[in-house]
Amino acid sequence: MNEKVPLEDIVGSSSIVGAGYNPQKQVFAVRFTSGAIYHYAPVTLDQATDFYAAESKGRYYAAHIKGKVSGQRMTGTCPQCGDEHGWVGDACEDCGTAVYAEVPRKPAESRERTAAGAAPTHDV
């Protein structure tokens, strides 16, 4: 899923600012307001069409894609300068000396506590 999928702007969503679809590979791409881009596959043409037609893109995504289709974060952080949201594997556009790396996921317990309203914990 490393191939970049062109994104269209999504207007009127509070969580999703861009989306794109590659029908040949059945890859659906989503850019969130944070700047993070995720690819999901396999996503059918009907699912992608329904997403674009949905009144609430965020609600459709949460109900039909998130947690139901395999996803992969495609953007990361430069380990040299800290620039965020470059394409994983690409050279950093800011410092040019490092390659963007995957952002490590928080442990499940930390994510659950954050979702429940507790202060997030950070690994040291």
Termini separation comes to: 31 Å
Order of strands in the sheet with most strands? 1-2-3-4-5
Q: Helix tally?
A: 3
Q: Which ranges are low-confidence, i.e. pLDDT below 50, for 5 or more consecutive residues?
A: 108-124
Describe what you observe in this structure:
The chain is α+β, with helices and mostly antiparallel strands. The chain folds into 2 domains: 8-73, no CATH class; 75-115, no CATH class. It contains 3 helices and 8 strands. It has helices spanning 45-53, 57-64, 108-115; strands at residues 8-9, 16-22, 27-32, 37-40, 71-73, 75-77, 84-87, 101-102. The strands form 2 sheets. The protein has a 5-stranded antiparallel sheet with strand order 1-2-3-4-5, with no helix packed on it. A 3-stranded antiparallel sheet has the order 7-6-8, with no helix packed on it. A hairpin with a 6-residue loop joins β6 and β7. The chain is elongated, with a radius of gyration of 16 Å. The chain starts with 7 loop residues before the first strand and ends in a 9-residue tail after the last helix.
Relevant terms:
five-stranded antiparallel beta sheet, 124 residues, three-stranded antiparallel beta sheet
Structure summary:
The chain is an alpha+beta fold and 124 residues long. The chain is built from 3 helices and 8 strands, in the order ββββααββββα.
Blueprint of the fold:
Layout: E1 8-9, E2 16-22, E3 27-32, E4 37-40, H1 45-53, H2 57-64, E5 71-73, E6 75-77, E7 84-87, E8 101-102, H3 108-115
Antiparallel strand pairs: 1-2, 2-3, 3-4, 4-5, 6-7, 6-8
Helix pairs in contact: 1-2
